[in-house]
C-alpha cells in the first residue's frame, strides 16, 4: 500500500496569526500589553514607573523613571548624588512662588511650609543618594493644620527633582494644596511634568534661575547655600501681596528672533508670556547669565 503525500498548503495570513513566529509572538504580546495599559496600537506610549524608597503618613519619596514598552528611557542625570540635608534645607527654604490674588496682584509666599521643609530635605537627600542616572526623585509632603484641637485640614506639597549639567532642578507640582476630606487615606496625586495642576509660578533670581514657570535651575554647589539664603524681596516666611504695576514688554527684535528660531510667540499662554517678560527683565538687570537666559527661553518656547 502506497502512501500518498498530501501537497503542502500555502501559508495564509490566518495560519500566521494562529501559529505566529517567536518574533511575531513577542510583538503580539507587546501590543496586548499596550492595549491593557490604554495606549495606542502603533506602540506603547511613554509612561512613568515609580519605585518607593520612603513612605510614612506624612512624607513619601519615589524614584521615577520613564519607560516605553519594556525599555527604560536613558537619561543623563548625575545620580546617585550626595547633598547634605542642611544644604538642601537652605535651598528649599529659599524657594518662593507667586499665585494670583483676588482683586488683582499676586501673593508671594514660601513654597515649603516650615513644618515640612526639613522632612522634605531629608527625603530628597535619601532619594538623590539612591537614584540611578535614569531616575528622578519625586517627593510628596503632607502638613496637618489643627483647629480647636480636634478638627484638622491637610495640605500637600510635591515636586520632582534631578541633578543635570551640574545643577539641581526642582519642578514644583503642588504647593500647599488642600487635600479634600474624601481623598484622605487614599492614594494622592503624584508629581508629574506633563500638566500643571495649580496656578503659580516660581520666583527666580541669582543662583536660582528660571527653568520654566514652575521649575528652578539651582546652582546648588554655590557657597551661598552653606547657610540660610533668600532671594531679593523675600517674604521672610509670611505671604505677601505684590501689585503688578507694569509688565515688561518683549522687544520686537527679540520677538522676531524667537519667531524665526522656535515658532510664533502668539502660541504662548498668558502665564508663559508673563514668565518670558520677567525673564527678559532679569537678563537686562543682570540677575541671570546669558547662558541661563537662552536655556530658559528655549524651554519656554518648547512648552508652548
General description of the model:
There is one protein chain. This protein is α+β, with helices and mostly antiparallel strands. The protein is built from 7 helices and 12 strands. The strands form 2 sheets. Strands 1, 2, 3, 6, 7, 8, 10 and 11 form an 8-stranded antiparallel beta sheet that branches. Strands 9-4-5-12 form a 4-stranded antiparallel beta sheet, with no helix packed on it. The radius of gyration is 25 Å and the shape is globular. Mean pLDDT is 79; it is low at 1-18 and 244-252.
Task: Please render the helix and strand layout as text.
Blueprint: H1 13-18, H2 22-37, E1 46-55, E2 59-68, E3 71-72, H3 85-94, E4 96-100, E5 106-110, H4 114-130, E6 136-147, E7 151-164, E8 167-178, E9 201-202, E10 208-212, E11 215-218, E12 240-242, H5 252-262, H6 270-284, H7 290-302
Antiparallel strand pairs: 1-2, 2-3, 2-6, 4-5, 4-9, 5-12, 6-7, 7-8, 8-11, 10-11
Outline of the structure:
With 304 residues, the chain is α+β, with helices and mostly antiparallel strands. The protein is 29% helix and 28% strand.
Amino acid at each position: 500500500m502506497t502512501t500518498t503525500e498530501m501537497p503542502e498548503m500555502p501559508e495564509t495570513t490566518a495560519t500566521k496569526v494562529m501559529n505566529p513566529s517567536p518574533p511575531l509572538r513577542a510583538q503580539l504580546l507587546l501590543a496586548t500589553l499596550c492595549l491593557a495599559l490604554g495606549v495606542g496600537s502603533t506602540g506603547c506610549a511613554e509612561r512613568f514607573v515609580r519605585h518607593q524608597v520612603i513612605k510614612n503618613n506624612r512624607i513619601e519619596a519615589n524614584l521615577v523613571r520613564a519607560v516605553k514598552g519594556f525599555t527604560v528611557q536613558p537619561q543623563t542625570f548625575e545620580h546617585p548624588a550626595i547633598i547634605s540635608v542642611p544644604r538642601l534645607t537652605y535651598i528649599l527654604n529659599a524657594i518662593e512662588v507667586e499665585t494670583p490674588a483676588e482683586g488683582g496682584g499676586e501673593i508671594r509666599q514660601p513654597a515649603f511650609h516650615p513644618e515640612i521643609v526639613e522632612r522634605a530635605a531629608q527625603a530628597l537627600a535619601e532619594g538623590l543618594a539612591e537614584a540611578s542616572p535614569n531616575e528622578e526623585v519625586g517627593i510628596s509632603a503632607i502638613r496637618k493644620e489643627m483647629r480647636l484641637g480636634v478638627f484638622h485640614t491637610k495640605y500637600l506639597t510635591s515636586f520632582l527633582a534631578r541633578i543635570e549639567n551640574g545643577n539641581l532642578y526642582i519642578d514644583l507640582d503642588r504647593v500647599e494644596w488642600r487635600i479634600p476630606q474624601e481623598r484622605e487615606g487614599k492614594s494622592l496625586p503624584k508629581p508629574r511634568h506633563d500638566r500643571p495642576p495649580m496656578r503659580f509660578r516660581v520666583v527666580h533670581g541669582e543662583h536660582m534661575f528660571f527653568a520654566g514657570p514652575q521649575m528652578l535651575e539651582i546652582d546648588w554647589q554655590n557657597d551661598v547655600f552653606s547657610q540660610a539664603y533668600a532671594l531679593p524681596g523675600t517674604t521672610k516666611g509670611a505671604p505677601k501681596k505684590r501689585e503688578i504695576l507694569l509688565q515688561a514688554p518683549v522687544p520686537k527684535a527679540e520677538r522676531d528672533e524667537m519667531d524665526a528660531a522656535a515658532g510664533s510667540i502668539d502660541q504662548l499662554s498668558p502665564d508663559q508670556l508673563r514668565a518670558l517678560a520677567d525673564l527678559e527683565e532679569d537678563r537686562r538687570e543682570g540677575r541671570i547669565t546669558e547662558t541661563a537666559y537662552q536655556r530658559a527661553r528655549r524651554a519656554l518656547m518648547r512648552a508652548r
